[in-house]
């Protein structure tokens, strides 16, 4: 007897669901699909309507074939997978659009904050950091003072040699000028 009450409850629930399905199907099929598409102006609404139609038809066909105990459901399953992929694409487009709008809103908020801080005169820090004005000096203090004296002596001797070479070069130039003047005469 307990089985009869369970079955009756399932049948009653199935009847309620079928009645609600019938009402929804009547709303969906009150006008032909072409007329419904012409009444819609928004492309997104048209996409939703065609996806809904395809899903309803495929799932009703799937249910009907299940009731008939058809073993090969692969064509219906591929059709349902195709419709699902279209619905996923539409959802991805919506998400991409909402992310773009959110990103633009964040950029506008940041720009407003920067402009407000600049016009307000109460900046949180200087426009140019103090680090940019600090010099970078490197001091080498590895050697001793004796080493420094030797280096200076060596530099002085090199400087003397260079100046002596410059003097010799001047003498040679002046002598060549004298020789060339004698030849001209």
UniProtKB/TrEMBL annotation:
Record's keyword annotation contains Mitochondrion: no
Cellular localisation: Nucleus
One Gene Ontology cellular component: nucleolus
Region (Disordered): 120-185
Any one GO BP annotation for this protein: post-transcriptional tethering of RNA polymerase II gene DNA at nuclear periphery
Family that this chain belongs to: Belongs to the C1D family.
Protein name: Exosome complex protein
Species assigned in the record: Torulaspora delbrueckii
Gene (UniProt): TDEL0E02540
């Amino acid at each position: 007897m307990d089985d009869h009450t369970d079955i009756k409850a399932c049948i009653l629930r199935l009847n309620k669901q079928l009645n609600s399905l019938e009402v929804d199907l009547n709303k969906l099929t009150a006008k032909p699909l072409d007329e419904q598409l012409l009444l819609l102006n928004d492309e997104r609404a048209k996409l939703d309507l065609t996806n809904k139609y395809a899903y309803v038809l495929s799932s009703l066909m799937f249910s009907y074939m299940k009731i008939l105990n058809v073993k090969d459901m692969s064509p219906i399953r591929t059709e349902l997978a195709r419709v699902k992929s279209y619905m996923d694409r539409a959802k991805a487009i919506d998400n991409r659009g909402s992310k773009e709008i959110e990103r633009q809103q964040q950029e506008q908020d940041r720009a407003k904050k920067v402009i407000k801080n600049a016009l307000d005169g109460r900046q949180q820090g200087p426009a140019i950091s103090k680090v940019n004005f600090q010099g970078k000096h490197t001091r080498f203090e590895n050697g001793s003072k004796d080493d420094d004296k030797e280096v200076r002596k060596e530099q002085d001797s090199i400087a003397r040699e260079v100046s002596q070479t410059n003097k010799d070069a001047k003498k040679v130039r002046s002598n060549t000028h004298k020789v060339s003047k004698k030849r001209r005469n």
